[in-house]
Specification:
By secondary structure, the protein is of the alpha/beta class. The protein has a domain of about 180 residues: NADP-dependent oxidoreductase domain (TIM Barrel), CATH 3.20.20. It has 14 helices and 10 strands. Strand 4 and strand 5 form a beta hairpin. It is globular.
Length: about 325
């Protein structure tokens, strides 16, 4: 597949077809300060990502409670030329339980502005290449959100705007209030999480009634393609369910065996095969690789070297879903 087909290339031509997800960087999910070990591990992961051509690195203000961005920022400070070689995106909106309240989503102007400023400070940069709104906030005031986003963009805090975990209706509702395009939607999508596909293939069948949650995503994939919104898939490796060495679910056994056999036939790693399944879709999906293991990161590079036959793509789809299509 020609990488120039990716919708994001209209805005960020240097974006890679794979994205490195930095959620695993920074050490433990607590307030222990970032140490040299954390920075070294981040460097090893980034080096592996660069080695397979990745230029886009995905963050969020909450990853390891901010330490993922801090470790990455320390690496940027250590390697002065690295910032010029890569693109950085980060996300805001999720707030964990604290003294003020429970876990919540917050797209208020005050929180969005404070969150982005915090990310920039931890990363040690002046602006993000891409800012994603991490989750839909049911209490969002659209006019207020649009105003603060416009002000921050004018101030150079970010170049482009996207969303995460939003369906077609939410995206359209948000878009009509903004004075800038939404260029990306990051959503969970993998062989282990098929809702985005199931909403289309099963909408008019009894199977849909057995998976009503998937139907909430009806039209989302098509909406993003129609409007030039880059689809990014978090959890793209399905947490190793089909490519890892430790099986987690007995029901995955047929798909795991098929992934292994098919990877051998195509001459690629199991990780590469799993990602190639996503990338075979004509929506030009960008898988987000979440592992911090350099060996597995390097294995993911195989994904861009093959294009699955239609029959192989459907065979994997059927094996992962556990039953034939309607």
């Amino acid at each position: 597949m020609n990488s120039s087909q990716y919708p994001l290339h209209k805005w960020l031509p240097q974006a890679s077809s794979l994205v490195y997800g930095c959620m695993g960087l920074g050490g433990t999910w607590d307030h222990t300060p970032v140490g040299e070990v954390d920075i070294s591990r981040a460097e090893a992961a980034v080096e592996a990502a660069l080695a397979i051509g990745i230029t886009l690195f995905d963050h969020a203000d909450i990853y390891t409670l901010g330490k993922a961005e801090s470790a990455f920022g320390a690496l940027l400070a250590r390697r002065g030329s690295l910032r010029q070689q890569i693109l950085i995106q980060s996300k805001c909106a999720i707030r964990f339980e604290d003294g003020a309240g429970p876990k919540r989503y917050d797209l208020s102007a005050q929180h969005v502005e404070a969150s982005v400023e915090g990310s920039l400070k931890r990363l040690g940069i002046d602006g993000l290449d891409l800012l994603l709104l991490h989750r839909p906030d049911p209490l969002v005031e659209l006019e207020e959100l649009a105003e603060v986003l416009a002000r921050m963009k004018s101030a150079g805090k970010y170049l482009h705007l996207g969303v995460s975990n939003m369906h077609a209706g939410q995206i359209a509702w948000l878009a009509q209030a903004l004075n800038q395009p939404l260029v990306a939607n990051q959503i969970e999508f993998s062989l282990g999480h098929l809702d985005l596909l199931e909403a289309g293939t099963c909408f008019n069948d009894l199977q849909a009634r057995k998976n009503p949650a998937a139907m909430a995503w009806a039209g989302t994939l098509e909406h993003c393609v129609q409007h030039g919104i880059q689809l990014q898939s978090w959890g793209a490796l399905a947490r190793g369910r089909f490519s890892g060495d430790n099986p987690r679910h007995a029901a995955d056994a047929p798909a795991r065996a098929m992934v292994s056999d098919m990877a051998e036939r195509y001459g690629v790693s199991r990780e590469g095969l799993v990602l190639a399944w996503l990338m075979r879709h004509p929506a030009c999906i960008q898988p987000v690789i979440g592992t911090s293991d350099p060996r597995r990161i390097l294995a993911c590079g195989d994904a861009a070297t093959i294009s699955l036959r239609r029959e192989d793509w459907f065979s994997l789809y059927e094996a992962a879903r556990g039953q034939p299509l309607p």
